[in-house]
Amino acid sequence: MSLNVKEIFYSLQGEGGRQGEASIFIRLSGCNLRCDFCDTDDSGGTVMETGEALAHIRAFPCQWIVWTGGEPTLQLTDEILALFKRAGYRQAIESNGHKPLSPLLDYTVVSPKGTTDYAKRVNPRVSEIRLPVRKGDLLPALSALPEARHYFLSPVFAAEAAVTRANINYCVEQIKRRPEWRLSLQIHKLIGIQ
């Protein structure tokens, strides 16, 4: 079994319901979407055997893996997830929700882009919804989204600080109107860590 890996790094979860927790990030290459606000280069990568990836992450004193991308569901299989689970790792995923998420995952994040109805059809229940938002975006009704323990608005960080601030302010306004949502800032960007 192999994976096309963009990078592996050890840091803190920077956003959402697990914010601040030490985590091993395995960023997989490739995505089925091309979002204009995406802050991740998912091209290229290095093909790694799963045993090689497992040996690499054993150096970190943490048992949480965050599978991210790109879109990790394009590569992850239950066989791969079971291998890492047998090795003692808890596994989270950050996905756009276009493909079904495995029941072997311990924490599931769906971050729908554009239309959201696909996310509920494909994954009726997840740990959290993390919706990227720009000023002026219309928020979907919760009924259009998968059932989740947490619903977060995540302001899109732009190259211009004024645009980022406007996106944050817009999210704050929306949450005051619809308190079923919570704010998720990308603290890794704010404090300058990977």
Short note summarizing the structure:
By secondary structure, the chain is an alpha/beta fold.
Architecture overview:
- With about 190 residues, this protein is α/β, with parallel strands linked by helices.
- It contains five helices and nine strands.
- Strands 3-1-2-4-5-6-7-8-9 form a nine-stranded mixed sheet.
- β6, α3 and β7 form a beta-alpha-beta unit.
- It is globular and about 50 Å long.
- The two termini are about 30 Å apart.
- The model has no long low-confidence stretch (mean pLDDT about 90).
Mean pLDDT: 91
Helix share, percent? 10-25%
* Total DSSP helices: 5
Count of distinct strands: 9
Distance between the termini: 28 Å
Strand arrangement, major sheet? 3-1-2-4-5-6-7-8-9
Largest sheet, in brief, is: 9 strands, mixed
Radius of gyration: 16 Å
Stretches with pLDDT under 50, minimum 5 residues: none
State which percent range the strand residues make up: 25-35%
Taken from the alpha-carbon principal axes, the silhouette is globular
SSE string, helix = H, strand = E? EEEHEHEEHEEHEH
- The class by helix and strand makeup works out as alpha/beta
